[in-house]
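REQUEST ID: PR-0412
SUBMITTED BY: lab tech R.K.
PRIORITY: routine
TASK: structure prediction, single protein chain
INPUT:
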Amino acid sequence: MKKLGEHSEYIGDELQLFKNAVNWKSYFSSKIRPYIEGDVLEVGAGIGINTRFLAKEKQKISSWSLLEPDANLASEIKSNIDSLKINKTSVINGTIDDLKDHRYDTIVYIDVLEHIEDAVMEIKKAKQCLKPNGKLIILVPTYNFLFSDFDKRIGHYRRYNKSLLLRQVNDELSLEKLFYLDSMGFFASLANKLFLKKELPSLGDIKFWDNYIVRLSVVFDVLFFKVFGKSLIGIFKNEK
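STATUS: complete
OUTPUT:
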């Protein structure tokens, strides 16, 4: 693992819980994988659980770099990705600022941008690390009216809708795809905001959502044409 300077500790405590959301990770990854290729940078890789689902099409991947600012989380990544056998895998304890001289074909932010106070500057820096025609893939939680004690606890600055994400990307990159996922999860989040008011879901809550609600969303997202949901996915291209 490469360690590049001292970086802040992640204040959230949900990663160990959400690693059990295998149906959700399989679902959103299936929508993202067609755009992942070449030299890949995964920003805010956490403990490396998402990588298992994102990196399944190994024939399209030249290298995979996992960037994580929290040293404790970064130290867990290797044990979680060893079995993947991806070409040229590296774990970097640092931030996008440490990679100014590197260029990638694909840069992925999965539930990361909402943790960054100056997301606009982060996107500008990510663009500088993209090769020509490279892709920036972003997944974020949706709707500020759903902002809850859970968001506060895990260090979110905001939740997103399409217009906010497009404003933050601005004219840095061209839009390829922008769509919502987990329409039924939206109603679960709304119920928590209005009634349950949980700061952190239990393991049982995660398993119920993952085993039942996500599976319903797979069907209803199609029926609702992905016009709303608990998560938003944006896929952008560097044409300059």
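NOTES: The first strand starts at residue 2 and ends at 3.
REVIEWED BY: pending
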